[in-house]
Amino acid sequence: MKVERACNNYVAQGFVIRQSPIAYSEVNRKSEITIWVSTGPCSGTTYITVLNVIGQNVTSATGQLQSAGLSVRTVLQYSDTIVQNTVMGQSPVGGNFGN
User: Fold this and answer.
1) From residue 6, how far is each of 22, 33, 61, 87 by CA, in Å?
2) Secondary structure of the chain as H, E, C letters
3) Are the CB atoms for 36 and 5 separated by under 8 Å?
4) pTM attached to this predicted model
5) How far apart are CA 4 and CA 1, in angstroms?
6) pLDDT tens digits, residue range 34-89?
């Protein structure tokens, strides 16, 4: 087995990021397997807590998230019960770290 190391902003240090060949692949018994192990966050990465904007007006929510330095993508969805232009959900959810 070959072990490579790489920074990763989402996988904690010491955990496997990926492997090659992928899981459940059929390989020859003596094939080399490579795993990539996280060395922790990449340098220069800054984390912030994502605001919870569910229930807010989409314009206000977008402004708050952009002011926090985040990119926003809006997906329109119909609802019988929620007022038009109201945030129904978000990803990542509020309270999680983003970068």
Assistant:
1) 18, 16, 35, 37
2) CEEEEECCCCCCCCCEEEEECCCCCCCCCCCCCEEEEECCCCCCCCCEECCCCCCCEHHHHHHHHHHCCCCCCCCCCCCCCCCCCECCCCCCCCCCEEC
3) yes
4) 0.54
5) 10
6) 999 999 988 887 778 889 999 999 999 999 999 988 899 999 888 999 999 999 99
